[in-house]
Structure formats: structure tokens, C-alpha cells
Amino acid sequence: MTNTNHDNRHNTGPFDIIGDVHGCGDELEELLARLGWHIELRGQGEKRRVDVITPGPNRIIFVGDLVDRGPRSPDVLRIVMTLVDSGRALCVPGNHDDKFIRWLKGNPVKLAHGLEATTTQMAAEPQTFHKSVQQFLTHLPPYLWLDDGKLVVAHAGIMGNMIGHTSDRIRSFCLYGDTDGKTDENGLSVRYNWAALYHGLSLIVYGHTPVAEPTSVHNTLCIDTGCCFGGALTALRYPDHTFVTVPARKTYATRARPFGLPPARAP
207: how many CB neighbours lie within 10 A of its CB? Predict the structure, then answer.
């Protein structure tokens, strides 16, 4: 069943929209600090928790892909879950989070593209945490429609005629973008630049495709600046349209393709 809790048009912000974290917990903590948040993680195992010491001025929105590749996926999940559960943040799922849900449910999945790192880290976590993560990720809306309709946040993007609606097809587009089911020589899904065909009035903020710096096409903005690949973790301050960026502490994973948006589909 598709989660229909996407309509947040009453929520006018301001927002700090954070790109793909991919388990980069150190960089997320530093970025949140620069955005005015002071958080602390305490304890281990069943007792590990996140304390929000100083809340920032803006509500946070996460564009998904919380897990995989980086060294601290469980702590990233704890931070995001704490902020969302307290009403201080919103979140949409990414394709990596979607695959992680299937692993949590015990379904057969291929441990590749960073999932092997997450499952290794989760092996040290209590089953109560596994269950709470599964419940949290399962109930995230596929996209968020915000600020009287002027802003939409979706992990991989969304087309104008999909906004305001829900279906399995729309959820798939929000998770994976414009694909044709084919894979490239690296086993990665072939992607197309859906943004090249978008001409809507709502600003679409998304991640999914790593770019060297925030990249605008028409009325869309990609803010996945490839932190796990040695790039940076970026937040868009909305509606100011300014950026706060934290460089990666190190390169946690090797890129299988260069930074940059994919080509558009042929007419």
C-alpha cells in the first residue's frame, strides 16, 4: 500500500533540506551543527539514544538514502528518526532505504552498492532497533508537497502530473527516477534526466544522482553532492535558496560513474 501522507501544503517552512546522507554520520552531525542544531548520541546497544540539546531555527527535511556506503548508517537512522518523531523533521525514502527495508523484512536481496556495509553495521544492533527502523522507513511518504504547493521534495524526482496523486508507479518514480529497467556495465540502473522535461510551477528538490555541486535544471534542484564518494553533504536553506555544505571526511565508496546528471531521453 502506498503511503498517502504526502500533502503538507499547510507547512510553509522555513526548511533546511539535506541531501543523500548514505551513512555519513560525522558529516551529518557537522552539517546539523552548522544549521544551528546541537545533538549528542549517548550509550550503546539498547540504551543508545539521541539527545537534541539545541534545536535549529528551521525544520529539517531529508531527501532519503539515509543508509549504505558510509560508516555510521545506524546512527544516521537514530538521528533522523529522533528528529522526525519529535516533529522537528520530515523525511522521504530513497531507493537504498527501500532495498534496506526488504532486507530488514528477511526478503532476499543482493548485498551490493553499499548494502553490505549497512548490514554489517546493523549486525551489532539489537532487534528492537531493527524493528523500529523497519516501521519508520515503511511508513514514510513517497514525496512531500509543501508550502502551499510551491515546493516538492522527492528522492529521485517527480513529474508535474504526479504531484498531488499517489500510486505504486508514482512511488517507484520518486524512488528511482526515470529508468527503463535496463542496467549498465557496472550493474547500475540506466537513468534519464527527467528534469529536462519538467516545466511545472512547483520547485522540485531531489537527490539520488550525485553532482559535483547543487545543480538546477528548469524549476528543479539536485542537492546530492556525493558525500559518500568523497564529495560533500549539502543542505538547501529554503526559501532563502542558499546552501550550507560540509566536505566529506574521506572517500567511503568508489564511484562507478562520474558525477553529473544523466542524459535526457531522446524525443
Answer: 30
> Is residue 262 assigned to a domain?
no
Say if 253 falls within a structural domain.
Answer: no
pLDDT digits (tens, 9 = 90+) for 13-34: 999 999 999 999 999 999 999 9
- 266 in a domain, yes or no? no
> CATH number of the domain that 221 lies in?
3.60.21.10
Q: What is the pLDDT of residues 223-255, one digit of tens each?
A: 999 999 999 999 999 999 999 999 999 999 998
For the chain, how many structural domains are there in total?
1
What range does the domain containing 229 cover? 7-247
CA distance 174 to 98: 11
The pairing of beta strand 232-238 with beta strand 49-54 = unpaired
Q: Model pTM?
A: 0.95
Q: How many helices (H) and strands (E) does the chain have?
A: 6, 15
Give the span between the Cα atoms of 210 and 260, in whole angstroms.
Answer: 6
Question: Who's near 242: CB < 8 A, 6+ residues apart?
Answer: 236
